[in-house]
Amino acid sequence: MVDGAVAVDSFDMLLNHLKFVHPSRYGAMLDGIGLVALTGVHPITDQSTGLRFVVLVDRLYDRDVPVLLGGSGLENLFTQEKLNGGYRKKYFRALSRLGALAQGGRTLIGQEIKD
Predict the structure, then answer these.
(1) Beta carbons within 8 Å of 107's beta carbon, 6+ residues apart
(2) What is the mean pLDDT of residues 71-90?
(3) What is the C-alpha to C-alpha distance for residues 37 and 104, in angstroms, rounded to an integer?
(4) What is the pLDDT of residues 38-65, one digit of tens each?
(5) How do residues 15-44 score in pLDDT, each as one tens digit?
(6) Which residue among 20, 24, 41, 109 sits deepest, i.e. has the most Cβ atoms within 10 Å of its Cβ?
(7) Residues 6 or more apart from 108 whose CB is under 8 A from it?
(8) At what angle do helices 47-62 and 11-18 cross, to 10 degrees?
(9) Please, is 3 exposed, middle or buried when counting C-beta atoms within 10 Å of its C-beta (0-12, 13-18, 19+)?
(10) How many CB atoms lie within 10 A of CB 46?
(11) Residue 112 has pLDDT above 70, yes or no
């Protein structure tokens, strides 16, 4: 059972929306949300977009909001260039946190988790 609202959004629409919201407001965007489901997840190639998404993942993690990832999911979410660059620690932290939140999402809906 989900405590709070379920937000189902297109990954591209979410990334576009984040351009117009100051990162300090990302937490407020999640108030009352108990599960986030993203459709059409694909690799992020733009640095600014990637860093905004990292902040959102941090806010999701801080609030322990489970996620469901459609599309390619975590696979190649950040390009190898990003993972080798100056913000690599941020990107790897986001992948780790998003993986934990996605596991929570799968558990929440009762999907078997495979290693």
Answers:
(1) 66, 113
(2) 95
(3) 12
(4) 999 999 999 999 999 999 999 999 999 9
(5) 999 999 999 999 999 999 999 999 999 999
(6) 41
(7) 2, 35, 66
(8) 100
(9) exposed
(10) 12
(11) no
Q: At which residue do the structure tokens 């709070």 appear?
A: 4
- 68 near 38, Cβ under 8 Å? yes
| Neighbouring residues of 85: CB distance < 8 A, sequence distance ≥ 6 | 47
Calpha distance 47→101 (Å, rounded): 23
User: Tokens 């407020």, residue?
Assistant: 28
DSSP character string of 10-77? EHHHHHHHHTTS-GGGHHHHTTTEEEEEEEEE--B--HHHHHHHHHHHHHHHHTT--EEEEETTTTTS
Cα 96 to its chain centre, rounded Å, is 11
Could you identify the residue written with the tokens 């190898």?
Answer: 80
